[in-house]
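Consider a protein example.
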Amino acid sequence: MKPLKIEPFGDAALLVTLGEVISLEVHQKVVSFVRAIESSSIVGVGELISSYNTVTVYYDFLQIPYSELKSQLEELDIEKISIPEKNIVQIPVCYDEEFALDMKEVISKTNLSKEEIVKLHTSKEYLVYMLGFMPGFFYLGGMDTRLRCERKEKPRLKVASGSVGIAGGQTGVYPLDSPGGWQIIGKSPVKFFDKSNSSNYFKIQQGDGIRFYEISKDEFINTFQ
C-alpha cells in the first residue's frame, strides 16, 4: 500500500501522509511505515518524526535528491511489515484533591461524580498514538467519551511533572514541569523522561498500551517516593 501523499517539508525533509483521520488503522500504517524505513537501506535518511497520521522524514540532500528519496519511499511495502506485540505499561495515579486540581471543574463539565470519573479513567486501555509537545509527553487515544472535557480557558504557567490531565477526547501525563491547559485530575509518581538514561530517555513509546490504576495519597508518598 502506498502513502496517500508525499510532499516537500522545507529543504531537508519530506512529509508523508498515511491517512486523514485519527484511528487505530492509520496508526498501524504509521508504525509500519517507520519500521519499513528503518529496515531499508535508503542512503541519506536521518531523523523520523511520526504523528497521528504522518511521518516527517529528514534527509541529507547532498546524499540523495528529493525525487529519488520520494521514489524509494513510494516503493516501500508496509503491508509486509509486522507490528510488534503491544507493550502494556501500568501507571499508578493518585486522584487525591491535593493533586486533582481541576476535579471539581471536570465534575461540573461532565456531570459525573469523582468516583465515576476515576472509575472511567482507570477502566480503559489507552493507545500511545504519538509523543510530542515536550520530551516524553505521550498522547493517548481510547478515553471514554463521557470524560470528554475541553481545555482550561486560561492555561497554567506551571503544571507539575506527573500531572494527569484531560483535554477534549484525550488524556495524558505531563512528564516535566511546564505550562499547560489540560484539566488536571490526578498525579502519577512515575518518572517518564530521564535525561540521565542515555540508552532510553523515554519510559513510554509510540504504540504502547497504557492502563492507569488508582493509588492512595499514602501510597504515593510512602511507596513510590
